[in-house]
Automatic annotation (TrEMBL):
Its main location: membrane. One of its GO terms (biological process) is proteolysis. It comes from the Archaea. One of its GO terms (molecular function) is peptidase activity. This is Protease PrsW. The chain crosses the membrane at residues 6-21, 33-53, 59-82, 94-115, 121-144, 151-168. It is a multi-pass membrane protein. It is found in: Cell membrane. The keyword Membrane applies.
Length: 211
């Protein structure tokens, strides 16, 4: 059991550390990043599980139902810093979205590991944290842009995250090896979002220095 918990938590903590330090220009308060991670690991899974109960035996649930409730419940975690004025751009969305997604993935991996054994955790430890982190980063970027008054709603970003999650679950069910390709694409997408966020932060610094 201890091994399962370690394998479930370690990749998430490493990725959280990595992306937190990617935000080197305007780092987010550690207390908020931790709060979002813990919300994603506790409240978000609880909410999504409760909402999914009526569809528990539906063959369509993993592809069409679960992604909706999971992405919405993870995004709720990011509203903590958003409502407290801690978000002002793309990079903030990436950091907080990654934190929420990694928290959710940690709990999910622990549950799967306790249910199906260590071999499942070893496989999911590689795939699941990056997938959840990417999906939630996409939707959380919407909140970052809303904080900047660049967009009026987060809905298109949330829908995009749900679609990406649905595609992931679809191939996990019918042909899991293809998820290795999706994993690479998720990594590239997450990296691109971080690059956009860092570039935006640099432009802000240049703007204020030039005034």
């Amino acid at each position: 059991m201890i091994e399962i918990v370690i394998f479930s938590i370690s990749p998430a903590l490493f990725l959280l550390w990595y992306f937190y330090h990617k935000d080197r220009i305007e780092p987010e308060p550690k207390i908020y990043v931790l709060a979002v991670f813990l919300f994603g690991a506790t409240v978000s899974p609880l909410i999504s599980t409760i909402l999914s109960l009526p569809f528990a035996f539906s063959i369509y649930a993993p592809v069409f139902i679960a992604p909706i409730f999971e992405e919405a419940s993870k995004l709720l975690a990011v509203y903590i810093p958003y409502k407290r004025g801690q978000m002002d751009g793309v990079m903030d969305g990436v950091v907080y979205g990654v934190a929420a997604g990694l928290g959710f993935a940690t709990t999910e991996n622990i549950i799967y590991g306790l249910s199906f054994g260590e071999n499942v955790v070893l496989l999911r430890a590689i795939f699941t944290p990056i997938a959840h982190a990417t999906f939630t980063a996409v939707s959380a970027v919407g909140l970052g842009l809303m904080a900047e008054k660049k967009v009026n709603t987060v809905l298109p970003f949330l829908v995009t995250a749900i679609v990406l999650h649905s595609i992931w679950n679809f191939f996990a069910l019918i042909y899991f090896p293809f998820n290795a390709v999706l994993l690479v694409l998720n990594i590239l997408l997450l990296r691109k979002l971080a690059e956009i966020g860092l570039r935006e932060d640099m432009e802000k610094i240049d703007y204020y220095l030039s005034r």
